[in-house]
Amino acid sequence: MKLTVVMPGAAGREGGTRLCRIASGVMEGLPLDGALQETAKGFTVEWVRDVEGFFSRFCSKGFQNARILFLFDIGATGICMELYSMLWMIRQVEGGFDGSIAGLVVDGEGELYTKAVAREFVFSANRSGCLFVGRPLAEATKGLANFSVAARVRGISPEEAYKEAIRELALRVACFSAAPKRNPKLLCLHSCNTRVSNTYMLWSMVKKHLGGCCRIQEIFFRNGEIKDCLGCSYDTCLTYGQNTQCYYGGVIVDGVYPALESCDGLMLLCPNYNDALGANLTAFINRMTALYRKRQFYEKYLFSVIVSGYSGGDIVAAQLIDAVCMNKTFILPPYFALTAVANEPGSVGKAENVGQRARKYAGGIARVLCGDRF
Ligand SMILES: Cc1cc2nc3c(=O)[nH]c(=O)nc-3n(C[C@H](O)[C@H](O)[C@H](O)COP(=O)(O)O)c2cc1C
Question: How confident is the model at residue 374 (pLDDT cuts 50, 70, 90)?
Fold first, then answer.
């Protein structure tokens, strides 16, 4: 088992920045006894420290079927030129990360940009075939302020907490395994008008190829049916969550929580509303928090069908990556989102290659959920 650590711009700076210093220390200490499973015996760490090294290997498909930890130093400006060079390349090479499993660390000198940089990178790498484990981001902000709570709770320094976060992520990437399920369940949540919605129409085109591969449960949110999270205190939310409840109750508690607990994959149908998720799905994600206090979702996959009238599917996808994968621990399977542009109601059938794309996307869902039986 090999973990490839990609840190563009690190050549000649070993030990020079906080991230270089801390990550080098963590990698030298891997694996700790008993930390890795049997299958990961003979574990080694390999570093790629320059963009040229990344380019030549990526173009010759040398980053397929790999376990990768990306490390990005974004400084005070949030601009890492090496990362943008990598994005430029990643967006041109189809399938460059096929079969690969990854996580990333983003280290900044301010309190901004870490998340924005991370989700943009994850979106593009995922479109090149990379799977990201649930909660794939370890971030560090100015003065490691974002580790202050974790450090206080555990009685360690913020730097120790940061080290532990990188180590824990590296091990989760190295150990990730996903056995296909027998008769898996896909839960689809939406609030589309099923008669005219382009998003629902595109999902129907996908769904017809999934027959026999998985059980599909659809839950429709009527407008106004779901109240957004009240923002209870942590302790109140925890108490409700431990009883599989939430302050407001209703369809989220009675229908969605049990369906979420029993599903293997979550499919969210997302029309682009003002370059964001619609209010009902946003409220659902916020209300998932109480259940998340009781149990995490590291073994479940996130999928999405996203339709925009003009543009912006990438922004909606990035919002899902942030909220559902990075925050709520769902796995991001390769090519997690099917995006399309359609303006007139019911016109998505005319979008370029849409039938072929829907079929291919369904094939990807089937491979993820049930292996190659599809
Ligand atoms: C409230 C609202 C806001 C919208 N905002 C955008 C937008 O910001 N960008 C865009 O490309 N399309 C936008 N659209 C258009 C939809 O994304 C478009 O109709 C698409 O077909 C998906 O919607 P549907 O599934 O309801 O048909 C908006 C539509 C509505 C109703």
Answer: very low
